[in-house]
Amino acid sequence: MHTLRTPEDRFAGLPDFAYPPQFCDLDDDDGGTLRVAWVHDGPEDGEPVLMLHGEPSWSFLYRKMMPILAKAGYRVICPDLVGFGRSDKPARAHDHTYARHVEWMRALAFDVLDLHGVTLVCQDWGGLIGLRVLAENPDRFRGVVVANTGLPTGDIAMPEVWWRFREAIQAAPTIDVGRFVQAGCRRSMSDEVRAGYDAPFPDDRYCVGPRTMPSLIPTTPEDPAAAANRVAWAALCASQIPMLVAFSDSDPITGAMGPIFQRTMAGARGRSHPVIENAGHFLQEDAGEELARHVVEFLRR
């Protein structure tokens, strides 16, 4: 597997994100290895909270939440998905598959970090990957927070706004990741923050992950990932693992999934679920501090 690695100097001077990265090598499922990165905060003996980002962001998205959870005594772990952040970036579209992305995050969480009693916090592709990991390894988890995400099976049509996003990110001559993230927010970002989202992608050769991920989402019942997602969805519906549904009020892509999670997931029933106001798809960027406080309250309950 041919991969690219973003030079470390691209990450110098990131605003409010001075966490030193950790690295490990994982089997790339193609005869080689991939370097995967993560950052962490909080006490080593704290209950682990695994926070997974989505497309086209990276762990920088969680910089407003990490110190709040760490101060509350939790061990916060924020990986970079393969193809994003400081993790290695497969340079060919066909090297990215849904199953591989699930396996890479499972291997990091359990084979490398050996996490137990984990609370998963997931948004966008962080949910598409993380919810699969949870459903297939329920004994490792004690809770889950779903935020602007879903688990598509191809049985229900994706919203038109998602198809427009997929077309835009796949057809653009070059990808301005900071601009895409800003478009998914309700509140303005500074130039420094936008540059932080751009940092992992020095040029378009590094953007195969952001370009490819939308095409991996099951949009038909026959999609290669559809069957596994159906099995995972059924397992999650029946699971008693506590679930907090913390969606924003202004996400046209995943907003309709919030009530579905609340209604169909056994672990979500009988619980008060917050709605994060004046926040778009990237609610961690718009209102990370507020979301973090809801996560802490959920963990303490």
TrEMBL record:
Cross-referenced InterPro entries: AB_hydrolase_1, AB_hydrolase_fold, Epox_hydrolase-like, Haloalkane_dehalogenase
GO molecular function: epoxide hydrolase activity
Protein keywords: Hydrolase
PANTHER family: AB HYDROLASE-1 DOMAIN-CONTAINING PROTEIN, HYDROLASE-RELATED
Protein name as catalogued: Haloalkane dehalogenase
Annotated organism of origin: Mycolicibacter hiberniae
